[in-house]
Amino acid sequence: MSADSSFWRRTKSILELQEDLTDDARDPSALKRHLGPASLVLLGIGVVIGAGIFSITGAAAGQYAGPGIVLSFVIAGFACALAGLCYAEFASMVPAAGSAYTYAYATLGELVAWIIGWDLVLEYAIGAATVASSWSAYLVKFLGQIGLPFPVQWAASPFTVIGKLPDGTSLHGIVNLPAILIIVAMSLVLIKGIRASAAFNAVMVAVKLAVVLAFIALGWKYLDPANHHPFIPPNEGTFGHFGWSGILRGAAVVFFAYIGFDAVSTAAQESRNPRRDMPIGILGSLLICTGLYCLFSYVLTGLASYREFAGLDGLAPVSVAIAHTPYRIFTLLVEVAILAGFSSVIMILLLGQSRVFYAMSRDGLLPAMFCEVHPKFRTPWKSNALFAVFVSLFAGLVPGHVVGEMTSIGTLLAFVIVCVAVVVLRRTMPDAPRQFVTPLVPLVPIAGALSCLVMMLALPGETWLRLLVWLAIGFAIYFGYSRRHSHLCRKSA
Length: 493
Description:
Shape: globular
Strand order of the largest sheet: 1-2
Number of helices: 18
Distance between the termini: 11 Å
Low-confidence stretches: 1-5
CATH class: Mainly Alpha
Number of strands: 2
Order of helices and strands: HHHHHHEEHHHHHHHHHHHH
Largest sheet: 2 strands, antiparallel
CATH architecture: Up-down Bundle
CATH topology: Amino acid/polyamine transporter I
Number of domains: 1
Strand content: under 5%
CATH superfamily: Amino acid/polyamine transporter I
């Protein structure tokens, strides 16, 4: 069979990937290894504690699950833990940049690797746009509270209705300018280098954790039991609108909040001792954040009725909840901390995206410019610059709830493929050294894949349509460019 006709099953061996890492260690133009286990855990917390707590939680409670959003986080966390165990095994075996893309390339073939790589671009880049929309909403609210009103039409996409004229005509936004500016700013931090990025993230994580713990502690005293009754609101007659189907749909939507450990795996090539530290970073951040999510969502829905969050598009629920306490001044402090915390979420998502592009470019599936490393900063700066433009425009022009659901389905698809890849690699390379071993294979990977598939099926139909359109664009690029330029294709020609 010719090399071209077998493109779909070309794999990059574990040995080749490990040789690449050996070469990187000697290459002054490669990514710089700076991150230890604490930094990796903080990276995970930095991206997990953000949009899921401060924005998506309110929308999912108000539209799908009610107070049962706590159970949605438990379901999503369980599925995420199953996938996390699979990620940890791969990260200890192949500690290379690229996350699920690299793992798929080593097990399932080039075409599947391309699909998951293209999907990861959706996950990280569009995820950053989601959080930027939320950041913008909090900024406008904060500025208004300190007497510096920001024009609403310049903080909303042209597809968002911001009011109505006296004659009933809908008034739309122009562009979400603050969202554009924060994306560009965080991209510049990333270009500066991984050391600066890690230091910035550590400060932001400390601020966010302080706010989350303070919100839980202060809000607990003012919980209204009536807001938690019924804990699972009755279904309203359609799938996904409250009841247990609403909890399931809520789990699928808030799953977006858990992509932090996924982003940790993209930084493997910048870890000092990745085989030991990557499982710690992945599973440690997941464990910490799941507990915080459950406590936070319980307090949020106890302070205010879930109905109050229904019309917010998930972009400012925390301020609504705090309004039910006497700590009104605390609202300003929370919003300052949220703005700082969201900044680190955006930065880490953009970090993950650029590292996936770096790995795909290094394999020849994308133009070589995306794996070029800045001679001084040791970062893939051209990839960062490209997505500073692309993601900022997306954040400025597309409503926040739309991009949030797109990110959830992209994340779930990535997890399904990683779970399947663990089973495949156990059969094809059973004796390969594994510093971390996923327990109960194939039970755990199969359970992880199935749970993620169930949540994918719970997402709205239009979200699936957007995913298919995105994948169609990816297939056009692959068959038009990547298949012929693949380094494996050239080796086998």
